[in-house]
Amino acid sequence: MKALLQRVNNAAVEVDGKIIATIGPGLLVYIGVAVDDTPARAEKLAEKVAFLRIFTDSEDKLNLSVKDTGGDILVVPNFTLQADARKGRRPSFIAAGRGDDAEKLHVAFLERLRQLHDSVQTGQFGSHMHVTSSADGPINVIVDI
């Protein structure tokens, strides 16, 4: 699994003209499931998201996690994170997980993350979403499990 974590002041997801999720300060997390991913990887990624120290402490050092700060998390499923753009001009999505299998791992990721953190919102798997956010820093980290 792969995730792009962005520290945000706020973020929201809209589907079919309706806002389905919104958060205040915290993390906007895009996740991409690969064809060879497993539930164990989903759990490991959730733990990394909850505990990765990318928030500043009183000395302005990146020493705090979203769990430490009590921030919100918004998870957006995003198969394009598995794109391979090394060759040509059109990315390949062969590595991206498919349909029900990918959705099951997305759910496993969310279940574990919700066990670790109280405030978790999500986009809608398989839908065309409009995501808005206000980056903080900007701080962006790619995590590949």
Describe the structure.
- There is one protein chain.
- This protein is an alpha/beta fold.
- It has a single domain (2-144), classed as D-tyrosyl-trna(Tyr) Deacylase, Chain: A (3-Layer(bba) Sandwich), CATH 3.50.80.
- Helix content is 24%, strand content 39%.
- It is built from 3 helices and 8 strands.
- It has helices spanning 39-51, 66-69, 99-116, and strands at residues 2-15, 18-23, 26-32, 55-56, 62-64, 72-77, 120-122, 130-144.
- The strands form 2 sheets. Strands 1, 2, 3, 6, 7 and 8 form a 6-stranded mixed β-sheet that branches. A two-stranded antiparallel sheet has the order 4-5.
- A hairpin with a 5-residue loop joins strand 4 and strand 5 (62-64).
- The radius of gyration is 15 Å and the shape is globular.
- The model has no long low-confidence stretch (mean pLDDT 96).
Which terms would index this structure?
globular, D-tyrosyl-trna(Tyr) Deacylase, Chain: A, single chain, 39% strand, two-stranded antiparallel ribbon, 145 residues, alpha/beta
